[in-house]
Specification:
The chain contains eight helices and eight strands, in the order βαβαβββαβααβαβαα. The chain binds S-adenosylmethionine. The site of S-adenosylmethionine has 19 residues, from α4.
């Protein structure tokens, strides 16, 4: 419920070295699925990262599905129903190298689907990635600005972090349907919500686009963080000309500078200079152009103290 930087949590049921579909079937057949109630439905999702494995993901899913039905029939004397679209229990099989992992998805939809995201910008970051950026920055509640905030992610995630808000306690989790968890989940939810606080920090989001800010305001309202996060219209490339009160000065045209990707080096340089002139002390950012950013930031007086590599959209 508290998790902010992970997308899914699985309960591992079995893990074995395998070389064929028959071995996966045998492994899945040996598991006792009595924790699934007789009137509940299930589905199997399979993924295969080892392309040399001789069977496809749908074949793996079908083999495990029949093993689940056989095992359940053997131990409970009834036939479990399959519902591929909206199952009560989702079984997940991963074939990784020459190993198979069989597990139950405890959360359902990815945890990056936050309760507050009612509107999404087309280039919005997944909130779990935004939360990773905040942690990687070592942020502890100092004034924080996302100068190109789009529809919200980083400012809202910062507010959730500082207030110890549990995003998973505000949405449905698949584990609610499992009797082994159901009895104590309400107690856990009560406990984690009880640990939230009303701490305040100076957190702001700014964007050049009024449309993005409109989405931001809607998400912010849904998040319940309106009293902590401020929103304003402005140009990150001219940040030094924006007043602290969060209103653009008269002489500042928020749409003054727009640059295409072909001028990305100039864009980064102007941005770094603008941040430097406004007294920004530390910058954390995501870029596909690492070398360019390291060089640009160093020149603007921001020596790079750490670089993390991650996978995102290929
Ligand atoms: C990739 S999206 C933002 C993603 C966002 N930070 C998040 O965490 O979801 C880029 C945003 O930058 C804004 N933008 C582009 N140039 C800008 C500038 N010079 N000043 C302020 N915002 C800008 C765009 O309007 C767009 O909303």
């Amino acid at each position: 419920m508290r998790a902010k930087t992970v997308n899914r949590v699985y309960l591992l049921l079995a893990r074995e070295e395998i070389s064929s579909l028959e071995e996966i079937h045998k492994m899945a057949r040996e598991v006792d699925y009595s924790f699934i109630e007789k009137d509940q439905t299930f589905a199997v999702r399979a993924e295969r990262s080892n392309k040399k494995f001789p069977s496809t993901s749908p074949e793996i899913a079908a083999a495990v599905g029949s093993a689940v039905v056989d095992s359940y029939m053997g131990s409970n004397g009834s036939r479990l129903r399959v519902d591929l679209r909206n199952p009560d229990v989702e079984i997940y099989v991963l074939v990784r190298k020459w190993e198979a992992l069989l597990s139950i998805n405890l959360v359902g939809r990815s945890l990056h689907c936050r309760y507050y995201r009612v509107r999404a910008h087309r280039a919005a970051l997944p909130p779990s990635l935004g939360a990773i950026m905040i942690r990687a920055s070592g942020w502890r509640g100092e004034p924080l600005l996302d100068p190109m905030c789009g529809c919200e992610t980083i400012p809202i995630e910062s507010a959730l972090l500082i207030r110890n808000i549990a995003p998973g306690a505000r949405r449905e989790l698949a584990m609610n349907k499992l009797s082994m968890f159901r009895d104590f989940l309400d107690g856990v939810r009560f406990e984690v919500i009880g640990e939230e606080n009303r701490r305040k920090a100076e957190i702001a989001g700014m964007d050049l686009s009024p449309k993005s800010l409109e989405m931001f305001r809607k998400n912010l309202r849904a998040s319940g963080m309106e009293d902590t996060v401020r929103v304003f219209l402005g140009d990150a490339l001219r940040l030094h000309r924006i007043s602290i009160e969060g209103r653009a000065r008269r002489d500042q045209s928020p749409f003054g500078i727009r640059m295409g990707v072909s001028k990305i080096d100039q864009f980064y340089r102007t941005l770094a200079e603008s941040l430097s002139m406004s007294g920004v002390r530390k910058i954390t950012l995501i870029t596909p152009r690492k070398n360019l950013i390291v060089e640009t930031l160093s020149r603007a007086g921001y020596p790079v103290d750490s670089v993390l590599q991650f996978m995102y959209g290929g």
